[in-house]
């Protein structure tokens, strides 16, 4: 998996994830995701390049969302791939839900 910074239309930095977002990469990606959330006033993660995601990957995204909420920020999970949409649908989680709603699920 590669991680690449990109910019959205407003010029905000958006971290792009490519490849697998699975248990095999969770330890590697956790500090990268949390650092991106902590550094940006409007954190964004582009998920269009995620080819596979498992429960560890979903948990990692929910952790990043909670971290953003603890900093009074909203994490945008942008352009989810089909794999990401399918996983969030399987767990009945909304991709654009605030951290409080995700924690209650």
Automatic annotation (TrEMBL):
Superkingdom of source: Bacteria
Residues making up the signal peptide according to the UniProt record: none
Query: Which InterPro entries does the UniProt entry name for this protein?
Result: MlaB-like_STAS (IPR058548), MlaB_ABC_Transporter (IPR052746), STAS_dom (IPR002645), STAS_dom_sf (IPR036513)
Query: Which intervals hold domain STAS?
Result: 15-105
What's the protein called, per UniProt?
STAS domain-containing protein
């Amino acid at each position: 998996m590669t991680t690449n910074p990109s910019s959205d239309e407003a010029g905000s930095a958006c971290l792009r994830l490519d490849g697998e977002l699975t248990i095999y990469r969770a330890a590697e990606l956790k500090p990268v995701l949390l650092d991106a959330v902590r550094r940006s006033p409007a954190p964004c993660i582009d998920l269009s390049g995620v080819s596979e995601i498992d429960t560890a990957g979903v948990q990692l995204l929910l952790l990043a969302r909670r971290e953003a909420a603890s900093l009074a920020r909203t994490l945008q999970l942008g352009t989810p791939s089909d794999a990401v949409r399918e996983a969030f649908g399987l767990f009945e989680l909304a991709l654009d839900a605030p951290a409080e709603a995700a924690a209650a699920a």
